[in-house]
Amino acid sequence: MQLPEPLNRYQDIIPGLQEFADSLASPLKPFVRLNTLKAPEAAILHRLRGEGSRLKKTAIRWLYSIEQEQRLRSGTCYQLGYTYPQAITSALPVLALDIRPGQSVLDLCAAPGGKTTHMAQIMGDTGIVVANDRKHGRITALMANLKRLGITNTVVTNCRGEFLATGMLFNRVLVDAPCSGEGRYRLDKNGRLTHMKAGATDLPAIQKGLVQKGYDLLAPGGIMVYSTCTINPDENEAVINHLLRKRGAVLEPWQPPLAWHRGVTDWNGVEYDKNLRFCRRFYAHETGSVGFFLARIRKL
Amino acid sequence: MPPAVFAPYELASSSRVTYLVRRSPFLSGLASMRITRAGLPFMRNAGIHRKPTTEAAQRFGHLATRNVVRLALPDLFQLCLQNEIALEIDTDPGFVFLMDMNRSVWGCGLYLQPGRLLNRLPKRMVQELAQNRRNPDIASQP
User: Which of A7, A165, B51, B78 is the most exposed place for a label (fewest CB within 10 A)?
Assistant: First the structure.
């Protein structure tokens, strides 16, 4: 069994290799989150079904799989801010944060706002969310989504996350870091990988800077989640291993509502901290969604 | 709209837009931050008048006790496409909330006497909704 480049280097860590390889040829399933800040869940469901959408409840609150993907961004429910199309795995870091209404939350790499708006929804639009992103073009999408979903508890900042200056520490911090996006890779009809990003950015260096900054802005007792949509250990476990060495952070186990695997503790001949087994890995062939990684970290 | 609806919020203004920001003890901690946008655009200056934004209308419009116009979907689509429909209603001239029969507020219209209702929904939203009109599942909704 041979995976296409560059995924073939993960053959030893991907479970069910044949199923994983087969799944690359299938499109990712579309999911939609219902925005209960604007209307009750039952009313949105009634409306969507009336428009001909076939929805199926998932293990995650407010999240449904949907068949008519082409209507996700054009139906009246979308225009009215009742729905947010997203990958099911994108909901996981928000759940792992264990957010409560009234808290202070920092989303260090927020655009286009799927996780930001999910957090605001869990908080019942109370407390405060600081949503930051460095890219101006992506900030526009973030602000459009915040408006569309009718959110009032979020302030938007536009700077490099590593240099974000705040006058406060936060109860919760999300570092959904920029990554190679390997969890999104699919095969086209010609057997070529799609969704590959061009460029030679040193992503692990950026990710290490972001995760350290996120940890520094976390209040004692607070929870930070680091997440990516890649399966590359250099962008995942190696980044968290770096944080554990630099800051003495504490990794916590977490029980996700989707099929998961432990973080790897050695990769390419490098041994990581044993606690990295508490990280969680998600593969596209098991979740039907984007491949994902997350680590839940507490500051003592 | 009952004033109590807005009791948990602060208002922040720029030259043209007033924003609604959820009140929180953490807000003062953000004073030193360089903020791009705070909260939800709530009102926009439109000449000598102040118009509720579409986003605010969609979020809070269902709580309005007057200046609400309920329309069936075909009438809403017609308003979107033609930008104006003839309608006699018992309300003062001015901005009104456009509500469908499922009690969803789409945004604002401008009611002018005698019997004119003008569309004030965003152009992009109107374009998307116009496409929906071709969808028989949606067009057949009440």
Answer: A165
